[in-house]
Amino acid sequence: MLCFSTVRRLERDYLAERAEGEALAATLQENRILLDEVNHRVKNSLQIVANLLRTQAMRHRSAEVRQELLDSSSRVLAIAEVHRRLYGEGAVYDTVELTDLIRSIAENAVPPTGGAEPAMTLATGTLLSAPVDTAVPVALIVNELLTNSYKHAFPDGRRGRVTVDMAVAGNEVRIDVADDGIGLPEEVAGSSGGGFGLNTARNLTRQLRGRLEIERLTPGTRFLLTFPMKPSAPTQA
To answer: Which run of H or E residues covers position 232?
Structure first.
């Protein structure tokens, strides 16, 4: 009788634990779906904002204002690229793979100006996951540096080449953006020179506790972004 009672108790405990586990799995699945939906909607909303800015730019008479609006659109799209990687099958909701992110940012930064734009070379073979609070400023910085090269290094339809390279040394990440264009003026290459975009890149670099070095080449300009990689504990959906 005692043995039978013990078996029944163990059976009830097992069924209770099984039901609790199934309830927990269902809750996790609901949370995954919710996170998917949130990130999907954020990405879509950012793309709508970017398209509105681009549409407004195309209708503005001032070339200077038009370019500012287009630059703002590209910044919004850079953030949208991060959120695009935060949902879907296999998504890791607190980390982003930097190699693919930088590749997309670089491809999106190429100006749609026809056949005279400079060639792009990517060498971002190092697979590296980064927390979202690192990925967003990195995306914006790379976008600003590439935009700067395309806007200023190749005036009057000049042909050239832009290269993007990412490497990891110890716990430091190095992202190298270089062009063979006309080069930055000395006053712009200084610690506080340049316009809104370049100073935005400097401010975001400080947020990463990193360094942004600008080197005047013959010919061209090289930007070297170096920052420490935070240790991350990814949460797989």
So the answer is: none
Same domain, 124 and 84: no
Instruction: Kindly state whether residues 120 and 78 are assigned to the same domain.
Output: no
Give the residue numbers spanning the domain of 8. Answer: 1-91
d(CA 61, CA 66) in angstroms, rounded, equals 7
Domain count, the chain: 2
Dist CA 62 CA 165 (whole Å): 35
Q: Are 140 and 200 in contact (CB under 8 A)?
A: yes
Averaged pLDDT, 58-80: 88
Lowest-confidence segment of 7-16, 131-140, 190-199 by average pLDDT: 7-16
Say yes or no: 124 and 31 in one domain: no
Contact by Cβ (8 Å): 62, 36: no
Side-chain half-sphere exposure of 55, counting CA atoms within 13 A: 6
Backbone angles phi, psi at 197, to 5 degrees: -60, -50
Check whether residue 190 and residue 103 sit in a common domain.
yes
